[in-house]
Amino acid sequence: MNLIVGAGTTLFLIFVQFWAPNNTKLNFTIHGLWPEYFNNSYPEYCNKSAIFNISQIQYLIPILDVEWVSYNGSNIDFWKHEYLKHATCFPNVSEEQFFLDTLHLFDNTDSTNTFQSNNIKTNQTYQKNYLNQLFNGTFQCSENNNQSILTLWQCYDLNLNQFSCPIWIDGSCSENITFQS
Description:
The structure is a single chain. The chain is α+β, with helices and mostly antiparallel strands. Helices cover 27% and strands 22% of the residues. The chain has a single domain (11-178), classed as Ribonuclease Rh, Chain A, CATH 3.90.730.10. The chain contains five helices and seven strands. Strands 1, 2, 4, 5 and 6 form a five-stranded antiparallel sheet that branches. A two-stranded antiparallel ribbon has the order 3-7. A hairpin with a 5-residue loop joins strand 5 and strand 6. The protein is globular, with a radius of gyration of 16 Å. The termini are far apart. Belongs to the RNase T2 family. One of its GO terms (biological process) is RNA catabolic process.
């Protein structure tokens, strides 16, 4: 993966996946890959002159339409948003490389397989710590009950070595959480 950030920075990466119970092929889909500082802040829209050019990733659209799905608008608008807000903060990374690298990370984490191979069931309650360990990440839950999983967050250093996310990322979930169908 080529997400190289300038020397001396204190960045790490957050890879975020949506829980996607209505998706017919996957239990999880990509939300995004975001740079984050170790002081609980993050850069965004780092290159105001950047332009999203869908033709650079045209050949990826069949994959993106399955693995990187918008649940609130068009997929292309969602990819554009993720690229302009987050990917522009990775110097020397092309639009194509950002999407390729994020897809590669998604394929390597294989959260859908973790879900299925561990016999996790929807609408059953699990201890948050158990799921955090199983998925090697932390979950964010809906604000209305703090039990319904919305997203999975996983943290990586700039060499794509996964590590436990900082405490402030340990989401909005209660101790007992559910994958709602």
